[in-house]
Specification:
21 helices, alpha/beta, Rossmann fold, nine-stranded parallel β-sheet, 28 strands, TIM Barrel
Length: 653
């Protein structure tokens, strides 16, 4: 059997996992009015059906003072129990154990929702929320501990098989454990044993409530990555203290602080897989109870190696199972190539929640919408001949959805390979994993029998010749020239032309100066700037926004972009609006002051909104052909919108 270590059962207290793949705790924003929902139940059940060995839910709050974001589950109210039972029953139908993570976020929170002071060990303001918390008294510490016990009791009554204490990246317990946030001089401050006192007391209180019926785990941060915070040496000692209670069945791990170094907790593709492996590896050498390893595991081979090499006993795979709920089942069956690999792009999982929306996935339109039947098979009794024009993410997803329901689909692509703009974006070295989207979609198309014709441009005459029952136009968008660029400008190129090498005269050359205009605010400008800087150009990015690549913040790419830009000497200039380009001089209006600035670069590179390619759709519509358009040729947006468009169009046939 492939990956034999992954399929070995493991005992966690009274619970046996049938394999070592854990769907670890992560926020979903599926809660409503403080209660879990059917959306939770269907979401977790899909991963249980897909073969996960253990599921751990998102956090359940243990106290009314803890309300850091709107859609938090308020585990301290009894009215959560029916929702708990719906979740656990849905998961148990697939013979998979499910644990509840319980937590109090402490000072990493805001009083916006609770209208109560934020509680913490010391009055140290969090760098994100910037709210000075109230240092808790000993009586309030007792109240916190009692809250954990109450929620554990609710979870037991709700049918959960275990409890995980979140003491890691966003927790009042982490606040007590860390010397950066615990400045107390009483028995809860000072030495590491004192700082761990709250953890030990919570472990005892929860174990007293759940007895030996449920498993109990503790999630510990191995390195906070902040000045004066918990490092791996302290973390190992904390793990030893937790084990020494004799009441903890396993240790889970994490890295970073959710409101200071979140970009290392939910790392994007710019952080290498397995980057946090040193933490479970160190824990496993120090404790005898099982240890869970986390850190951007993309495929089962990485997970297998982590266990085989002795770094951990179980592997937390979150985004991999968000993208493909059947990750484990496909791996066990030996169908590794069929796994829809996570891109680590963070656009629809981490990014959507950063916008206070529910969790989804850029390449799996079913994620979060399992209850709505999205992505399910509805075989047609009248198969149609479907022509899809364009093999970008929209066209490929339309082909998948239509073929899944029994239609005969042919995709026409004018170039010699699929991918569209995704292929171009992924050609930048540090964005290569984005190309897995096309790899995943093409694999699915091949499995469903979709036909491809490459090097074929589609025009109305070809449609009339082939006589399809329906045409889906997904021709994308084309670069636009802003009003301020002269028609005869020969030193102006679109970012796409720079990246794919089609820019006039080969584009910017080593030693030349380049101004990149960022009016999109995402990876377009920053990717081109890095590519040019690596080529040896002198690069400045100019944006009309307050920060270059402003949307990189929600995907947790901003911090690493800043570091790379500094290292590569890329200048970032904000609040500047291009007003004209004449005789080699670029005029820029400075928003705040109304004063013009000028630059004289060798090249101007444009990351500006493109134009939809509409002509084929318009011609076919005029001719009375059954046709629709999707993706960027409908309205230029990002890849997730293209996939949603494609799914909707193909599934509706």
């Amino acid at each position: 059997m492939a990956y034999r270590y992954l399929w070995t059962p493991l005992q966690l207290g009274p619970v046996t996992t049938r394999n070592r793949i854990v769907f670890s705790a992560h926020l979903t924003n599926y809660a409503l009015d403080g209660k879990p929902t059917q959306q939770h139940a269907d979401y977790y059940a899909a991963r249980a059906a897909g073969g996960a060995g253990l599921i751990i839910t998102e956090e359940h709050s243990t106290h009314p003072t803890d309300w850091p974001y709107e859609k938090l589950i308020h585990g301290f109210h009894r009215d959560v129990i029916p929702g708990y039972r719906a979740i656990t029953e849905a998961v148990h139908r697939h013979r998979v154990p499910i644990f509840a993570q319980i937590n109090h976020n402490g000072g990493q929170a805001s009083s916006m929702y609770s209208r109560l002071p934020v509680w913490a060990p010391s009055p140290v303001a969090d760098p994100l929320f910037r709210e000075v918390p109230k240092a808790v008294t000993e009586a309030e510490i007792d109240e916190i501990i009692a809250g954990y016990a109450v929620v554990a009791e609710h979870c037991a009554e709700g049918g959960f098989d275990g409890i995980e204490l979140q003491c890691s990246h966003s927790s009042i317990v982490r606040g007590f454990l860390s010397p950066a946030t615990n400045k107390r001089t009483d028995e809860y401050g000072g030495s590491i044993e004192n700082r761990a006192r709250l953890l030990v007391r919570i472990v005892g209180a929860v174990r007293k409530v759940i007895g030996n019926r449920l498993a109990l785990g503790v999630r510990i941060c191995g390195d906070e990555l902040i000045e004066g915070g918990t490092d791996i040496h302290d973390a190992v000692r904390i793990a030893e203290i937790a084990e020494a209670t004799g009441q903890v069945d396993y240790i889970n791990t994490s890295i970073g602080v959710a409101t200071a170094s979140l970009f290392m907790i939910e790392a994007s593709m710019h952080i290498p897989p397995g980057y946090a492996m040193f933490i479970p590896s160190a824990f496993r050498k120090a404790v005898d109870i099982p240890v869970v390893g986390v850190g951007r595991f993309k495929d089962p081979l990485q997970a297998e190696r982590a266990i085989a090499e002795g770094h951990c006993d179980l592997v937390g795979i979150v985004r991999g199972q968000i993208a493909d709920p059947d990750f484990a089942a496909k791996a066990r069956a030996g169908n590794t190539d069929d796994i829809r690999l996570c891109l680590s792009c963070n656009q629809e999982c981490v990014g959507r929640m950063g916008l206070n929306r529910w969790l989804g996935c850029i390449e799996n339109p079913r994620t979060g919408r399992e209850a709505q039947g999205v992505g399910t098979v509805h075989l047609t009794s009248k198969p149609k001949q479907v022509m899809v024009v364009g093999a970008g993410p929209a066209g490929l997803q339309a082909a998948i959805a239509a073929a899944r329901n029994g239609h005969h689909v042919t995709v026409f692509e004018k170039t010699d390979q699929p991918g569209g703009q995704v292929r171009i974006a992924a050609s930048v070295p540090n964005r290569a994993e984005f190309g897995d989207m096309i790899r995943n979609q093409v694999n699915e198309c091949d499995r469903l029998g979709v036909k491809f014709e490459y090097g074929v441009g589609v025009w109305p005459g070809l449609v009339e010749e082939r006589k399809p029952d329906h045409v889906i136009v997904a021709m994308g968008a084309e670069p636009a020239r802003p009003w301020w660029v002269p028609g005869d400008a020969s030193n102006v190129a679109d970012v796409r032309e720079v990246i794919d090498g089609s820019a006039p005269n080969g584009g910017p050359q080593p030693g030349e100066s380049v101004v990149v205009i960022d009016e999109i605010g995402f990876h377009h400008a920053t990717s081109a700037a890095e590519l040019l800087a690596d080529r040896g150009c002198t690069v400045e990015i100019v944006t009309n926004g307050m920060v270059v690549g402003q949307d990189l913040g929600i995907t947790l790419d901003m911090e690493n972009w800043w570091m790379r830009a500094y290292t590569k000497g890329i200048v970032q200039s904000t609040d500047l609006v291009p007003m004209g380009l004449a005789d080699g001089e670029l005029t820029l209006l400075h928003h705040p002051t109304g004063v013009n600035q000028t630059r004289r670069p060798d090249w101007v590179v444009l990351a500006v909104p493109p134009n939809p390619v509409e002509w084929l759709y318009n011609d076919l519509k005029t001719a009375g052909v059954s046709v629709e358009r999707i993706g960027d040729c409908l309205a230029p947006r990002r890849a997730h919108a293209a996939v949603v468009d494609g799914e909707r169009a193909g599934a509706s046939l």
